[in-house]
Amino acid sequence: KAGVTQTPRYLIKTRGQQVTLSCSPISGHRSVSWYQQTPGQGLQFLFEYFSETQRNKGNFPGRFSGRQFSNSRSEMNVSTLELGDSALYLCASSLYGGSSYEQYFGPGTRLTVT
Amino acid sequence: GQQVMQIPQYQHVQEGEDFTTYCNSSTTLSNIQWYKQRPGGHPVFLIQLVKSGEVKKQKRLTFQFGEAKKNSSLHITATQTTDVGTYFCAGPENNSGGSNYKLTFGKGTLLTVNP
Predict the structure, then answer these.
(1) CB contact under 8 A, A56 and B33
(2) pLDDT tens digits, residue range A59-82?
(3) What is the pLDDT of residues B28-50, one digit of tens each?
């Protein structure tokens, strides 16, 4: 079974720009969660989607948004980028999501905002 | 909201020494998961504990879930250089609706092993 894939792997953007990151979950997994990882804050939950519906959202500003398509692939978008948005963005897929099922993480997208 | 605290933040050991990381929650957890992230890699699921007082072993790794289901530990016996990485615990966050769709991760313990 192919693992979770994320594209692009690396991205350099300028403040004020917007960015879209993509995540393809493991085949058959219907839940996709997104996390932001930084050295200071660790892994912080952004949002979780299941069957195209956002079921939970973390404490991030509205500049961070996401969506999920009917094939379970997910995208997250960050508008009006700030320097502090530089981080590793990880997506994780799970069979049904939630805390009872193990999450399979993708390799991440390293976003640098200059 | 629920917080998961993990200590220590860093641990450096000599190869062959034991290692333990502890995870504490401010609320009772229905379950707890452990992940390992190698340097430059992504988190990889290790195990899930569900029952009060549960102990599970994976070769040299021993995982425990506290009786009150508010704390957990991961113990590695006789560390090897392959154990290097950051170990995270993660617990569900109960929202007002009672669903557990969000995992809250501890900040992790970075283990380095001197050969």
Answers:
(1) no
(2) 999 999 999 999 999 999 999 999
(3) 999 999 999 999 999 999 999 99
The alpha-carbon gap from A22 to the nearest alpha carbon of chain B, in Å, equals: 16
> What DSSP designation does A97 have?
-
Question: In chain A, what residues touch B93 (CB-CB under 8 Å)?
Answer: 99
Q: Which amino acid is at A81?
A: L
Of B101, B104, B95, B74, which is closest to residue B7 (Cα–Cα)?
A: B74
Return d(Cα B79, Cα A35) in angstroms, integer. 29
- Which of residues 16 through 55 in chain A touch B, CB cutoff 8 A? 33, 35, 41-45, 48, 50, 55
Nearest to A17 by CA among A82, A81, A78, A88: A81
Of chain B, the percentage scoring pLDDT greater than 90 comes to: 82
What's the CA gap between A89 and A93, in Å, rounded? 14
Query: In sequence order, what are the beta bridge partners of B35?
Result: B45, B88
